[in-house]
Amino acid sequence: AYFSGNHYRYSSRRLQEYHYEADSMAFRPREIGGLKGDGVQRTAQFASLLPTLLADEIENLAKDPSCTMTLNADTIIGGISRTALRAVRHLEGQERTASEAGMIFDSSTLLPVRLHYENSPGTVSEQTVDADYLTATVGDPAGCPALTEEQLIATYPDVFANYRRSNFRVESLPGNPMPEFALPTLTGERYSRLATDRFASPTLIVVLDPEGGFTGQFIDAVRQGVAQLPFAADIIWAFTGNHADTIESLTGPARLGETTLISARGLARDCGAATLPAALICRKDGRVADIIVGFNNNLAADVIQKTTVAGQ
């Protein structure tokens, strides 16, 4: 569900939510290493079935030299007048078909009625996807009511009651003890701390998704900020994933004062950090002094300012 800068997605007993006010970068298109990525509202499962994104797909297919398209603007399907579009993409330099798409639209409104995809036909990885659209009366408010969080909670009460991990909850941590955790390190050891434990120096606990779009930039900015502090501060990188090669490619060689932990999904949950990356800046007494959620262009300066206050 997406409306007014709020995005919610539920799968496998986990409700993720993103709010523009808390982290605008999650909604913005980005380019990483020459690869372009879309915001969370456009990359959710099945989002490509929405008419607006489907229109983008058709435009991209029309521009693809490896794709041939056939349009039948007026045909009869099931006794009803329809508009049909077929697109076939071939492997570059080969005659073999990479994918086929069949799209059926209402002839009067041009809204989608049915989609049929064949990916990698004739191979062991062949996949078929079919989508049928329900029909609502055009102009009928009941056909597509306006979305609100209250409406979502009323429609899915169990999901919100049992699986909600709101990214706003992390904002309540400053002033409270850092939640306890015990996680493995990249070297196979175990790092543990209780909620009552102290830190040797001001410490940034940075929770990261190794597959996240801004993870590398976030790490660099945090390091830049810590390097300019007038005192020593430690960093704990807590990655939600556990693929060592991916994580090491992001952090590089181990640095003095840094600890890298893996399998930190539970820590992210306990901190209420649904939006990653997130940095929890802790004082030596073990309490959270401040937080930073999401990447921004002034991140290094934020680290300096907030950690300096934590170190006083």
Attribute tags:
312 residues, alpha+beta, five-stranded antiparallel sheet, five-stranded mixed sheet, 8 helices, 17 strands, elongated
Looking at how many chains there are and whether they match, the oligomeric state comes to single chain
Using the CA coordinates, give the radius of gyration: 24 Å
Strand order of the largest sheet: 6-7-8-9-10
What is the overall shape? Answer: elongated
Runs in which pLDDT lies below 50 for 5 or more consecutive residues are: none
Distance between the termini: 43 Å
Number of E-type strands = 17
Give average pLDDT, whole number: 87
Percent of residues in helices comes to: 10-25%
Structural class: alpha+beta
Number of helical regions: 8
Largest sheet: 5 strands, antiparallel
The helix/strand series, from N terminus to C terminus, equals: EEEEEHHEEEEEHHEEEHEHEHEEH
Determine the strand fraction and express it as a percent band.
25-35%
How would you explain this protein's 3D organization?
It is elongated and about 75 Å long. Helix content is 23%, strand content 32%. A 5-stranded antiparallel beta sheet has the order 6-7-8-9-10, covered by helices on one side. A 5-stranded mixed beta sheet has the order 15-14-13-16-17, with helices on both faces. β14 (234-239), α6 and β15 form a beta-alpha-beta unit. The chain is α+β, with helices and mostly antiparallel strands and 312 residues long.
